[in-house]
Amino acid sequence: MAVSDHVDLPTFMEGVKKRNPYQPEFVQAVQEVAEDIFDFIADKEEYHAQQILRRIAEPDRVVSFRVCWEDDNGNIRVQRGWRVQNNNAIGPYKGGIRFHPSVTESVLKFLAFEQTFKNALTGLPMGGGKGGSNFNPKGKSVREIMRFCQSFMTELYRHIGADVDVPAGDIGVGGREIGFMFGQYKRITNNFTGVLTGKGLEWGGSLIRTEATGYGAVYFLANMLATKGEDLVGKTAVISGSGNVATHAAEKIVQLGGKVLTLSDSGGFIHDPDGITQEKINWVKTHKTHRRGRIQDYVEAFPAATFHEGKTPWGVPCDVALPCATQNELLGEDAKMLIANGCRAVSEGANMPTDLDGVHVFKAAKILYAPGKASNAGGVAVSGLEMSQNSERRAWKEDELQQMLKDIMAGIHSSCLAYGDQGGGYIDYVKGANIAGFKKVADAMLAFGVV
Ligand code: GLU
After folding, report:
1. Could you tell me if residue 286 is inside a domain?
2. DSSP strand E in 242-362: where?
């Protein structure tokens, strides 16, 4: 008779740590999910017997490769590239590509693991993957970035495909980089296919893909507030980051009647007590994306604001907070400070921006707290819609897509309620998202047997 694997959570996590040495981000992401899943599967023998969580926490494969390119001075540069294909139980691998010096195998494994649950929550047929490189685009010329993207794709192309694995953008990879990579894919394969999302509108891209992650995070926030009979009108918001996610989250907050107080980058944060209006957001978009400037320059353009060097914005009193920069940017102490200052809702635009201590603080305080795998799923959801449009060889209208994004975010919110409602008016969105995402992937895996 087979012996089922009824280890407890600490023993399970010991194994994860042992098998993934020096991969703290990955271990952290698994721990956050395992805390909820162990409760959920306590009385579900089949998930234990089939070792489903253990299998989801072991990527299908990790491809690591060398990326050589030549800089503008003729020097040969060598970077490392990866694609982590975590799980394709419910659809082709899907997830972004990140170019940032902090990228390691651990970071990409955590992101691919998170992506698996996030993509399941969207309700669209997408598995989980993530890729990237420790290449630092900061200070590089456009030609250098092009040569890097071409070299990266020269290896990546053999691992991806419209029905195999569909990468997109993430930190350091926007429309321009997707263009360079798509161009190289097409050149190598002679195949015009929906192999990447986040493409330009002229060559197979989807309307509102750019806005979708930030807008989606605010729609999710609005859904959470609605459970308390509240909306965003007159609410103050603290946002970190100043890239695509942060600026579009700010835009949607402003559209829904809220007041945005902060934005940030790796140099520090700006605090604008007058509120960051649409006009100011437009300035930030141009300054950060096109001029590749620093957020601290904001205070010269808008002198009512102050710049706080080397600091994160979590000490600024607010009603709602949206961490939209990067992983582990909001620590336990920051979470305590937010709550002490009256913050009532947190919607994550970034992936795993709150560390485990912070998650425990938010849960203990029973505030409205949405983990990124639920609240930032709007981006990958519209990527899924881009894949559908590519398959159909047509482009849907903006108002149709806006509505679909809203409906998908509302659907994710309902899934969180289904598994996260703790009674007494408290919804544990972390638990709801983890269980709803897990169950969909796990049930597909059960259907396939031991593979
Ligand atoms: N990088 C985004 C994420 O973290 C989007 C991925 C995609 O569109 O495939 O979800």
Report:
1. yes
2. 259-265, 268-271, 306-309, 320-323, 345-347
